[in-house]
Write a sequence for this structure.
């Protein structure tokens, strides 16, 4: 069997947002890349683990901030710890700058994006992050 | 002695007692008889008087024709005393008598008339009134009189019997009391005599017993002395007697010898025939005549006298007649030697047988005057000898008794004939000393004088002692003729001597049994210890021998300071005899012992003797000292405590009592320390307030000092102990606490004892007892005394504190009263209206500031207030403190009514709220801002909600445009011709994208199907696209047709684009709808067209709407449970109440944080509606609860909260006649909002 493809992890508790992001990213990602969507932190961790277990890798995670029960910042902390070299982008609908600052400091957030996001900006940011991550891990 | 005492008892007491008894008996016989007579006499008199009195009253009654009165008089008389009866007898003219009235009524006529009244004493008195004749008879029974007499006499008898008993008892007591000690003494002496030395002397123990023994010894010594004196006197008397007797006898002997020398016998021859005498010259010499040859007998007449001469003639005649020899002593007067009568012994006899015939008579004459005189003298002496109490015995030369006097017979019990001719040896008792017997024998053989004491025995076995004085007797020729013994009965003396000896023995036994030592010494002439009992060694530690041999005296071990005193006392005693009782100390065996010496100095001859007892009273002394010290302590304690009680202040009492206390405790200094308390009852330190001290000279000073506080650390363990309520005791050298040790040293204290003075408020201070010079152990007794005093001191202090507190309380009360009084004037100066309305609605009081209000409301002082207003005041809920708003012209007042029901009036306090109203307008603005602020917060959360769908919309529209421009319009034209139908089919499989897990599983299955169907590797990524589009891996699914299609992948991708378009359009739909919903809610909240009128509206709907807003705006995890029935309508300002729910929910959402739930429910009360909004967030601290309704109070960070929220809520609810309360616990915080069920006529700020 061929190994699992590289994937971008998208986490948002709003199913509309998650689906939209999946559709959008699938169009811009290089062929063979997958988008793994999850509606909560625990679900995201589960999918990520499963994917990595199948030999896949996750160079980038796109996480909403305002989630329940696990806040986006907390999820990011776990992900960064588990998957070193993971690039992270946080989406937030609220101007809670303090929380965002905390996350940026702790998680080395690649990018923070306000909702509603500019689709072009999102596409470019995601592609930049992927290429940077692939270069860092020597995957070309 | 016992006999003597018994004699006294018998001679004095017995007669006295007998006389007394006789007196008693006589009184006992005479008195009752006399008493009986007197009583009977008195009874008769009484009866007479009574009879006359009754008669008088009867007469009076009869004169007034009152027969009832007669009856009453009789009744009355009868009832006055216990009469046998009282009768009124009527004598009729015929002389017959009848009983007119009688009491008691059952007395028979026979008793009154028939003299059947024996045993009654009857007295009559005539009654004469008008036509009534008769008499009154009063009777008393003899029996009763006798009983009364007996009753009167009973105590007399008792008394007499008592006196008899008492005198008998007294007699016995006196007899016994006098004789008992003597009897005991005698019995003791008897015991001693019988060799019974086991006499018990209870001499153990106390000094008093020693003293008793001393006294006993003294009396014993007195007895000895008396016995000695008696013996001496007796001896002297006896010696004198013997001397006199001896002298008398010697003189007699001398006279006899002289007579012998001068004896001359004249001879004569008488011729009866011529009566002439032929005589020898000696004849004439004897007769004192000149010698002649012969002389006529008649010539001798001048010499003899006629009578004697006749006698001579008679004698001569008789001789001549009878021829017998005859002798006669004749008196004659010697012519030459004065008128002295002389005696002549004339002997005559016939001349010779041969001459008998001639009748011549021969005779001799001899002057026997001297002999005659001697004989007379001897007779006289023998009379003396016979009559003397001394025994006189005369023996012949062979010692056979020839004469004994009566005294000897009396003493020996023999008759005269039994002793004459026997030797005096018969009298001797075997008990006589054999040596003495031998000496007598030798003396008698030598014919010398003998002086001995012999023990003789009488005929009847009685023995007696004699002082024997034997004198040999010689006749005129010097021949030994016998002995004369003068014997003195010295039995008594000997017994005295024996008594003396026995007493000495007893004395010795006594002395040896004494605990103390006894000595006897000569004082003046060559002081010499005569006797010293062996116990002295135990007491003084000096052997007896040392005293006896003058190696030691009593001063040897005496302490020097006592010696001076004792010597002085001894000197005093030598100059003035007397008894003494002296105490001194000695040093024996290395310890000080207390000695008591009791004795007496008395003269003996010309010397002074000292007899005394030395006793060791160390233990008694020490215990006595202890007791004395104890009693001293108690006395001082009592004094000190009394001083405490009596002194006006405690310190004065202490100042008075401390010296007493200090002296008895023998301390050098006493200090009362006081503990100073600072703020919060912290101990600041302590210092002395009163000091008493005594220096080495005994000079005392007492000083009250102002409290100078030394810090706590200066006292260290001492103060620690005191504060803990314990005593502190230490020697300075043992104190390890540096500062305390330094302090004590600086004060010169060597030992300290500090006792806490505790009051119920805690330690007040302590009493400090300092030893400056010596150290010692505080005895328990002393400690108890100190503790007792300190506890008394403590209670005094407490009493004083209580008194001070009470005084302070009184002062405070006065102040309060003053303040209260001042406060009553308060309302006058109050710029706000203050009024008082009575229960009856009359205005009782209004201050100056009330004028405007009074005017506006039409009220007047003293008049009833308007009915409507009064109604509002009186019916108002007691707990309702909300004010009423009164519009008084240009000004507004809020009137608060407080019911003072106890006093039956209402106090009304007005506040000028005109300014407040202006302020409220300003507050309205602030409230608006607050609303905006809440809105702002809400907006922030809503922004998220709106931005999410907007993001989705943007993303979706981007997808759409991309799909449309890049894919649909580019690919479609080429592909559409081929397999449009298939693409549309594929794109329309699902309405919604599958869930992620589903998607992944589907992708996997599709991938496997692709492999199964032999698709190339380029198809592999297409698996997820197929799955995403909702297709599965069931065989024969439409997408399988793509594999055989030349441009299958392109077809699939285009179909997927169509799917994206479809999905994106759907997302836009959803997202827009959601955004619109949020905006709608916002519109509801903000409500641009505010309707501020109060009107009924659906509260249920409002609560649901606001909750939705929060649910929509909040996080996914926010749970708001609603328990709200449909269609609950309230009356109020809809927007304002929306503010209430928004504020409270907003706070709740913030409180619960990430994990929590909020509950909203509506409950209906009686006339109220309750909205409960609970959350399980943290508890609101009580201090926050208190202030959270205050304006401008916030717990939030600066800039986040305005502090208006809950204040606004409260004011809105007040305006609706409702209220809010909060119950917050760790588990649940519930805000309960009350609203009137049927609305409320709001006069609130929005009115």
């Amino acid at each position: 069997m061929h190994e699992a493809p590289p994937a971008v992890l998208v986490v948002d508790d709003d199913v509309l947002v998650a689906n939209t992001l999946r559709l959008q990213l699938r169009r811009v990602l290089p062929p063979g890349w997958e988008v793994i969507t999850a509606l909560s932190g625990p679900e995201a961790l589960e999918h990520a683990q499963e994917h990595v277990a199948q030999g896949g890798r996750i160079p980038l995670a796109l996480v909403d901030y305002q989630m329940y029960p696990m806040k986006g910042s907390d999820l990011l902390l776990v992900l960064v710890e588990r998957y070193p070299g993971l690039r992270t982008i946080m989406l937030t609908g609220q101007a809670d700058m303090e929380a965002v600052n905390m996350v940026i400091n702790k998680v080395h957030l690649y990018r923070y994006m306000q909702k509603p996001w500019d689709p072009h900006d999102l596409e470019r940011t995601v592609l930049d992050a992927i290429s940077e991550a692939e270069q860092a891990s020597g995957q070309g | 002695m016992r006999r003597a005492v018994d004699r006294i008892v018998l001679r004095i007491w017995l007669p006295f007692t007998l006389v007394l008894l006789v007196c008693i008996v006589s009184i006992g016989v005479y008195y009752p008889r006399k008493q009986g007579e007197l009583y009977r006499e008195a009874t008769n008199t009484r009866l007479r008087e009574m009879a006359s009195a009754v008669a008088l009253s009867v007469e009076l009654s009869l004169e007034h024709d009152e027969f009832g009165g007669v009856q009453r008089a009789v009744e009355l008389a009868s009832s006055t005393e216990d009469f046998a009866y009282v009768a009124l007898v009527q004598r009729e003219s015929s002389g017959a008598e009848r009983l007119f009235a009688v009491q008691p009524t059952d007395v028979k006529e026979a008793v009154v008339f028939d003299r059947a009244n024996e045993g009654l004493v009857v007295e009559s008195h005539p009654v004469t009134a008008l036509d009534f004749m008769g008499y009154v008879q009063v009777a008393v029974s003899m029996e009763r009189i006798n009983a009364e007499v007996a009753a009167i006499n009973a105590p007399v008898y008792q008394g007499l019997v008592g006196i008899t008993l008492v005198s008998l008892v007294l007699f016995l007591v006196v007899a016994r009391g006098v004789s008992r000690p003597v009897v005991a003494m005698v019995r003791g002496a008897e015991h001693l005599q019988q060799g019974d030395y086991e006499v018990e002397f209870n001499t153990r123990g106390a000094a008093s017993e020693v003293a008793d023994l001393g006294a006993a010894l003294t009396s014993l010594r007195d007895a000895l002395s008396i016995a000695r004196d008696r013996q001496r006197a007796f001896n002297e008397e006896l010696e004198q007697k013997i001397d006199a007797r001896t002298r008398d006898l010697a003189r007699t002997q001398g006279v006899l010898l002289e007579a012998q020398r001068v004896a001359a016998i004249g001879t004569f021859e008488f011729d009866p025939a011529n009566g002439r005498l032929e005589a020898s010259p000696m004849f004439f010499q004897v007769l004192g005549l000149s010698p002649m040859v012969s002389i006529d007998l008649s010539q001798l007449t001048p010499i003899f006298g006629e009578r004697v001469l006749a006698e001579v003639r008679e004698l001569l005649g008789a001789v001549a007649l009878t021829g017998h020899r005859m002798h006669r002593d004749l008196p004659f007067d010697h012519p030459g030697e004065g008128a002295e009568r002389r005696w002549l012994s004339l002997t005559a006899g016939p001349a010779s047988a041969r001459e008998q015939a001639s009748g011549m008579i021969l005779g001799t004459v001899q002057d026997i005057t001297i002999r005659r005189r001697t004989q007379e003298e001897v007779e006289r002496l023998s009379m003396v000898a016979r009559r003397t109490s001394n025994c006189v015995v005369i023996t012949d030369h062979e010692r056979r008794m020839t004469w004994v006097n009566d005294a000897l017979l009396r003493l020996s019990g023999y008759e005269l004939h039994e002793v004459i001719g026997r030797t005096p040896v018969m009298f001797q008792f075997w008990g006589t000393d054999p040596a003495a017997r031998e000496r007598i024998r030798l003396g008698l053989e030598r014919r010398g004088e003998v002086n001995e004491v012999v023990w003789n025995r009488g005929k009847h076995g009685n023995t007696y002692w004699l002082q024997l004085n034997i004198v040999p007797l010689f006749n005129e020729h010097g021949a030994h003729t016998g002995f004369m013994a003068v014997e003195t009965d010295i039995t008594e003396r000997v017994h005295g001597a024996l008594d003396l000896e026995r007493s000495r023995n007893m004395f010795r036994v006594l002395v040896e049994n004494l605990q103390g030592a006894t000595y006897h010494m000569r004082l003046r002439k060559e002081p010499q210890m005569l006797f010293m009992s062996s116990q002295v060694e135990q007491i003084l530690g000096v052997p007896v021998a040392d005293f006896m041999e003058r190696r030691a005296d009593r001063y040897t071990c005496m302490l020097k300071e006592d010696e001076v005193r004792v010597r002085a006392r001894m000197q005093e005693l030598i100059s003035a005899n007397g008894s003494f009782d002296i105490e001194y100390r000695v040093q024996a065996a290395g310890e000080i012992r207390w000695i008591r010496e009791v004795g007496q100095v008395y003269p003996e001859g010309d010397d002074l003797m000292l007899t005394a007892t030395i006793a060791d009273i160390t233990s008694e002394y020490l215990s006595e000292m202890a007791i004395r010290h104890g009693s001293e302590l108690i006395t001082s304690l009592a004094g000190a405590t009394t001083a405490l009680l009596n002194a006006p202040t405690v310190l004065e009492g202490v100042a008075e009592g401390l010296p007493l206390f200090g002296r008895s405790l023998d301390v050098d200094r006493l200090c009362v320390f006081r503990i100073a308390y600072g703020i919060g009852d912290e101990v600041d330190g302590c210092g002395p307030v009163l000091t008493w001290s005594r220096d080495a000279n005994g000079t005392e000073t007492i000083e009250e000092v102002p409290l100078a506080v030394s810090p706590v650390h200066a006292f260290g363990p001492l103060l620690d102990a005191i504060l803990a309520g314990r005593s502190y005791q230490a020697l300075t050298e043992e104190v390890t606490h540096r500062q305390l040790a330094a302090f004590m040293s600086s004060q010169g204290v060597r030992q300290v004892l500090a006792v806490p003075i505790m009051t119920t408020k805690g330690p007040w201070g302590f009493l400090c007892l300092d030893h400056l010079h010596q150290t010692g152990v505080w005895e328990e007794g002393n400690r108890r005394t100190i503790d007792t005093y300190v506890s008394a001191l403590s209670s005094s202090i407490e009493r004083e504190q209580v008194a001070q507190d009470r005084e302070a309380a009184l002062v405070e009360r006065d102040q309060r009263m003053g303040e209260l009084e001042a406060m009553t004037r308060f309302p006058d100066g109050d710029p706000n209206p203050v009024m008082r309305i009575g229960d009856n609605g009359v205005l009782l009081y209004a201050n100056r500031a009330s004028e405007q209000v009074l005017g506006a409301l039409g009220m007047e002082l003293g008049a009833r207030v308007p009915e409507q207003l009064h109604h509002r005041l009186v019916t108002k809920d007691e707990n309702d403190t909300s004010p009423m708003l009164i519009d008084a012209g240009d000004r507004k007042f809020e009137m608060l009514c407080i019911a003072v029901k106890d006093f039956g009036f209402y106090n009304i306090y007005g506040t000028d709220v005109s300014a407040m109203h202006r302020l409220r307008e300003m507050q309205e603005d602030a409230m608006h801002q607050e609303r905006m602020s809440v809105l702002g917060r809400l907006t922030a959360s809503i922004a998220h909600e709106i931005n999410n769908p907007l993001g989705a919309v943007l993303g979706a529209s981007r997808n759409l445009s991309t799909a449309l421009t890049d894919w649909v319009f580019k690919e479609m034209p080429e592909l559409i011709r081929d397999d449009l139908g298939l693409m549309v089919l594929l794109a329309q499989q699902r309405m919604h994208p599958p869930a992620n897990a589903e998607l992944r599983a589907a992708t996997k299955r599709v991938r496997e199907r692709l492999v199964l169907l032999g698709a190339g590797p380029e198809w592999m990524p297409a698996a997820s696209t197929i799955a995403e589009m909702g297709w599965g891996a069931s065989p024969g699914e439409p997408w399988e047709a793509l594999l055989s299609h030349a441009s299958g992948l392109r077809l699939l991708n285009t179909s997927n684009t169509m799917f994206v378009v479809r999905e994106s359009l759907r997302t836009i739909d959803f997202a827009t709808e959601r955004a619109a919903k949020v905006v709608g809610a916002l519109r509801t909240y903000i409500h641009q067209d505010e309707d501020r009128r109060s009107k009924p509206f659906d509260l249920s709907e409002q609560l649901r709407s606001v909750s939705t807003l929060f649910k929509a705006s909040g996080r996914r995890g926010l749970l708001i449970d609603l328990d709200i029935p449909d269609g609950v309508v309230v009356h109020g300002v809809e927007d304002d109440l929306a503010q209430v729910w928004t504020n409270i929910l907003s706070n709740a959402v913030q409180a619960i944080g990430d994990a929590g739930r909020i509950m909203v429910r509506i409950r209906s009360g009686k006339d109220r509606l309750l909205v409960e909004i609970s959350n399980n967030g943290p508890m609101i601290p009580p201090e926050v609860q208190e202030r959270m309704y205050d304006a401008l109070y916030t717990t939030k960070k600066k800039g986040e909260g305005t502090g208006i929220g809950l204040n606004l809520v409260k004011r809105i609810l007040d305006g609706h006649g409702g209220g809010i309360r909060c119950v917050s616990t760790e588990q649940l915080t519930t805000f309960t909002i009350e609203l009137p069920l049927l609305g409320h006529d709001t006069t609130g700020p929005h009115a």
In short: Residues 195-207, 1239-1247 of chain B have pLDDT under 50 and may be disordered.
